[in-house]
Amino acid sequence: MRIVIAGGGQVGSSLARALAASHEVFVIDHDPDVADVFQSMDVEFLAGSGTSEEVLTRAGIDRADFFVAATGLDEVNIVACALANRLGHPQTICLVSRAEFLGTSEHGGGLGAFGINRVVWPEAQLAADIERIVTVPGAIDAEVFAGGIVRLLEYRLDEHSPLTATALGGLHLPRGSLIVAVKRGGRIFVPRGTTRLEAGDKVVVMGTPDAMHAVETLVHPGRGGGHLHVTIIGGGDVGLQLAQRLEHVPSVNLRILERDADRGALLAASLTRTLVLNGDGTDLEFLESENVGRSDVLVSVIDNDERNLLASLLGRQLGVPKVITRVGRPANLRLFERVGIDVAISARGAAVASILHQITGGASSLLAVVEHGEARVFELTVSPTFVARPLKDVGTAEDAIVAAILRGDRAIVPRGDDVVRAADRILIFSTQAAADRVRQFFTSESA
After folding, report:
1. Domain range annotation of the chain
2. pLDDT tens across 100-131, in order?
3. What is the CATH number assigned to the segment(s) 2-120?
4. Contact 78, 94 (CB under 8 A)
C-alpha cells in the first residue's frame, strides 16, 4: 500500500518505522532537518507542507491508500486531510488535540464534511485509560470490551500472591476468567497449563464481570470497598478530563494540584466535586504539607517527562501505594517502570498502535493495546466457511489465544471443549508478532 504521512514528529516517525518494511511510505514535514530521522528507514521524505497541493501531488496522493495527518497543529491536520481527499481517495486519519474538533464521534465526528474518515484524540484516550486503571485496586491496566460483558485486568504479582502457588492448570480460577498473557523478563507470552507464575510477573486476565470481580478478590484479598483517595498532579487537558470522569465515580475523593493560579481558577470553575490546590507537584515540602502520601492513587499528568518522573518518585517516597504517570516520549516508558513507577502510559504510543491496526488490521477491529504495543486485543468474525470444532482442536498461532466467544448478548470465556463456529464473533489476545497469523487463520476462505 502507498501511505502518506504529514508530520515527521514522534507519531509520524513511529508510524513510518513500523510501516516502511511492508509498504510504500512517504513522509512530509516542513522542517528539512527532520529528514535525518528517516535516513535509516526505507521511506521517501519530502520537505514541505501537508497543506500544499504540489507537495501532496509529489507524494502520489492520487494513488495513496491512506493519508495520516500527524503534525502538531490541529488546523493544519484538518486542512491537509481535506486537500488529500480532494486530490485523491485515500482513507484519511486526523490527529487532534482539542475537544471542539472531535464533534460527536471519534470516528469522523463533526469533521466528516472535510473528508476525514477517523479522528484520533490521544489525550482523551489517555484520560479514559487512566480512569479505568484508577478505579480497580491493585491493577496496572484495565479495559472493558463488548459493551461491558468482557473485562481485562493486568496485575504485577508479589511474592505472596496466591497465583504463584502452583502451575496454572491447578489454580482453579473463577469460572468465566482466563489468564491470557504473562510478561516476564521483558518478554510477553501466552501461558499454558504447565506454566507456573512467579513473583514479579505481569499477568493479564480476561473474563466476565462477575468472574473478574472474584479474580480481584483472589489477587488482592481484603482490598476494595470504602472511598478511594486520588491525587492528580497537573491540571492540563488530560488532568481536567480525568477529573471530570472521576467525578462521576461516587467512591472517589479527588483533588488536583496545579501550579498555575489562572489555570487553577478555570479548573475550580469546571469541576464540582474536586478540591483544586494551587502548588507545584514537584515540591516535596508542598506535597508533605498536603499529606499526599495518604493518597491511595497518585496520577501525574504534567506535560513534561522529567517533571512527571520527579513528581511520581516523590509520591512513591511519601508512601503512595499506586502511582500512574504520563509519558510523552514512548522511549521513556521502560525507564519509568524500571525506577519503580507502577503504571507508565503514553497517549502517543496508544494512538500509534491504533492507527497501525486501522491500516494493517484488515477486517478485525482493534479493541486495546497492551504493554506498550507488544500485545493487543482485537475482535474478528470467523469465516463463514470455518469448520466448527472444539477450541482444543483449533491450531492457532503460538502466542495467541481466544479469550471470549460472543454470541448475541452473551460472552463465553472458552475452555478446550467449547466449540468455535462459523460466523462467531471472537475476542483474540495476541502478541504483536502473532496477530497477522491468527487473523488469517480465522478469516481466510480456506479456514
Report:
1. 2-120, 228-345, 360-443
2. 766 544 444 567 677 899 898 888 888 988 99
3. 3.40.50.720
4. yes
